[in-house]
Amino acid sequence: MTGYALRRLAQMLPVLLIASFAIFAMVYAVPGGPVAVIAGENASPEEIAAAVQRYGLDRPMVVQYADWLGRAVTGDFGLSLHSRQSVVQLIGERLPATLQLALAAILVALAIGIPVAVASAVRPQSWLDRLLSGWSALALGVPTFWLGILLILLFAVELRWLPSASRYVPLWEAPLEALRSLALPAITLGVYVSGVLGRFLRASLIGEARADYVRTARAKGVPEKRIVGLHIMRNALLPFVTIVGLMMANFIGGAVVTEAVFTYPGLGRLLIQAISTRDYPLIQGCILVILVAYMLINLAVDLLYAWIDPRIEYR
Amino acid sequence: MLWSDAAAPVQRRLMRDGLVSFLHLLRRLLARRGAALSLAFLALVALVAAIADFLPLDPLTQSVADALMPPSAESWFGTDELGRDILARVVYGARTSLVTALGAVCIAALVGVPIGLVAGFYGDWRDSLLMRCIDVLLALPNILFAMALIAVLGRSQGAALIAVGIAGIPGFARIARAQVMARRQLDFVMAVRSFGGGPGYIMFRTLLPNIMSPLVVQAIVLASIAILLEAALAFLGVGVPPPTPSWGEMLRTGKSYLYEAPSYAVLPGLVLTLTILSLDTIGRALTALLDHDEAATPGETAGDRR
Amino acid sequence: MTTLSRRHFCMTGLALAAAAPLAAALPAAAQQLKGGTLRVAVLSELANYDPQQLSTVNFHVIKNLYDSLIEYTPEGKPEPSLATEWAIAPDKSSVTLKLRDGVTFHSGTPFKADSVLATLQKGADPKRGKNVFSTMSVVKDWSAPDERTVTINFKAPVPDRQILDLLQFLIPIDPKGIDTVETVPAGTGPYTLVNRAVGQSLTLKANPKYWREKQPIAQDLVFTVFSEDAAATAALESGAVDIVYNGSSRSAVRLKAAGYQVFAGPGQLVQVFRINSTRGPFRNKSFRQAFNYLMDRAAILRVGYAGMGQVVALPWAPASPAFDAAYTKTYAFDPDKAKKLIAASGLSADEVKGWKLLVNGSDEPSVAISQILQGSLAKAGIPIELDMRQGAEYVTALLGGDFAATFGAVGNVQKFPSRVATNSIYRTSQNPVLKDPHPHPDYVAAIARVDGAAGGEAEVKATYDNLNRVLVDEAFAIATNSYDVGLIVASQKIGGVTLDIDNLFVARTIGFK
Questions:
Q1: 135-154 in chain B: CB under 8 A from chain C
Q2: What is the tally of structural domains in chain C?
Q3: By the 8 A CB rule, do C96 and C146 touch?
Q4: What does the pLDDT look like over C286-295, one tens digit per residue?
Q5: Which residues of chain C have a CB within 8 Å of the CB of B242?
Q6: C181 shares its domain with C303
């Protein structure tokens, strides 16, 4: 299995290389450069020319890419053109915020999704199952930005219980404040994931319930609670791990809409900001982090699969 | 060519079977209450959007003096910050959404299906190469990818359509590939092959009609994702530029008037949500019917949308 | 030599749109304010710590990390700061400054003439001078007879007001840190840098060796960056911050109604419809003049800026000496007059509509007011499209002059009138939009007349009137309204807010009641 993991890691390199070059090329194709934003409205032509030269933006694209790549392999991702801060530091400040939101959302999703799935899988096609399936459909169909707006209207504008906009407060520094800030975005994102989880878990629970070993257990008179709890749940864990993993991977950069609704300082919004100001080194850094996180989480999910279910074997 | 004459009857039968089974499916779909309701709602939205020009609705005329009015008998959904009728803008916004969805599905299918067919049919280096490309597309959250693409193309309906369409390619490619892999060794494929059918003929004339049903389901699922993604892009301020009405753009502007006019963001969002739910309901009902299985597994058709 | 401590400045009435409680606005009326941690919400991430980069994004830090040579009261009266005295030569071709004693930079370096010289050097360097560079164009050279004296010589006689503007603009930088000033602040200001979390917050603490007595009042100053107005106001309402700086006019109106204090400074911006008169139908003067009447200024002010500010037809804030309310009446919204001018232009129906209106899609008011103009144009029979661009793409098009017409606010409208020429559309040479040779020589001449008027009040006034006439006649930039930038919305427990002439955020006098 170690060999497999190493091989998978090695396979990541060409994908990263292709992706980083493609992104570099794409960003350069984008109209508008970073210099106008840095220099500002009243900049003289001399000043603009000086800035272009200072940041090495007058060199050919391929040269700039090679230069960036040469530094990147040594772990130097350069400075943000806009804030002149190190890209690593900038991302390092956003990543914990993103992870905290992602984890909170997953927890909300588990808290809603598991009971929903179990309750509806116990008696498929019952009124409860239909009701809960309706919930899953609703959770999946409601756009996060609309749900976010409704939550803000209710909890911030009307009831004034929670802030309408969230900040990143580390949970271990000020737990109460962090929860207040995190509540609405985590619910918004978590509701969506609970829909995904509810559906997948229900399907796999029902699938497992029909499996031979369950029938055998039932025939042997094992109590129903034990069957559901021990046998079915354990085997349904497999697709479950996948979903949670995929969602986590996606949230690293992909929770931008929720971040935008609640003005949460996540990685996705950092990237959007970087694109908007054409901050080339920052764009490259963000995208690489998002890609690497996605691939690593995928790999972790695959390895976890093998650990949960020894029948799966990776060569 | 000889082989095509010989294969023609087989081919025609396959096509006819496809059509018959599709109509059959539609009938069974309408028998389900939820799906029928959803279909009715979508038909209403599409109809109103299509004949909007003949309705007494004007999405563009401003009247700043009547800005941010709550819903009333005169304007059912109220007015926006420039005094335009929100209902009229929702109706015309449906056009934006539906056109984007349709265009995006077409782009995704036209690119994704051939990729999936080729990858699944050959299964050799072509498969590895194409699927690696699909992996790269998948690794980047599609909303970010769409935003980057729009930054290159500029803000327009066309750009939104292309960006959403490209985001849908992996879904089609994966479904088509999986379906083809499952069928390429089956008897009827072997039969066409023995008549001398070339790879292109087998892929597009033999296999494609046979995997139509899952592809149609995928198209419906993608349509709902496309509408959502288009709205999300507009919400983030990079969708179809104003003054063209768009649901996402209305939510974006409405969000900044939450205190003054709460209904501004709520009502267009409701229509958007109902449209997405309807498409989702139909997609699931179709999947369930196709699987002949009460435990409807969304499986591969659930694309990610965040 | 005349010492200019009590000279008359033609500041035509200071209209505080938000009717700020003036008593509380003046430090003189400082009640017993308590210190503590002042938490301020800002809406932009600062670009860097260079005080010569006077862009709005840096407004909240400059006056807290640095001091300028002199300051203006909100009414425009100059006051000593790091310069204790300034004497303008009778021929108005030089100014001599006395520097304050006993001031040290944050690094411990004593404040002496060398730092002023280094600062002038940087400002005069086109590559490093940033916003100060254009103001330095009148300066010939400078010298320091001793450690506490600096003399600045001008190329030609310069109006008093312009000299004072220059001194107010000059912010001494520690010579030791001048090369790294973008990343490491190097000032004498009331606060020193503690920590910066980019995109999130900036923490400052009181400078224990600050030269102003009993200032700063608050020991700690924390700026939290909010990317959206709604987020900042929510934080204020939930008590997470004490002040919102530079929020939108619309939120200020709402919060004022909810009992918060609103302070609007004199340094307003003016929204200007910029016309690229080198292109298409805009080469036609009569067609351009039609836009004087096509602006539904009342609607623009109401939708874009919640009614805060004033409708104007010229690029001056009410605090500007060139402000003239009569123009606003003459050039009120009148589609019929506009139609007549369009007809008089002799342009065909096809010719007048063959252009797009460039819109800054990242700026909510711009999107709204561009749609208002689009509506007015449609009524006048000119259907046009909006060309919506975001962020850098818009800025690049704006500064490169790559547009037919666009809305863009201009600043420095409360200062010496020729300062308007620092904004790209109003530039008299090397204009990035109108290019060289300048297509409106009358305007260039009018600005030169303003700059050359070193005589009596009547002469100065005549040059302003002439400039105003030329501006509406040439009509390459149509002002629509003034609006507030750097608005301060504070909770009830905050007192001692000082207004800055440029609406920069001044924290040193603020404390808790």
A1: 151, 154
A2: 2
A3: no
A4: 999 999 999 9
A5: 367, 371, 386, 388
A6: no
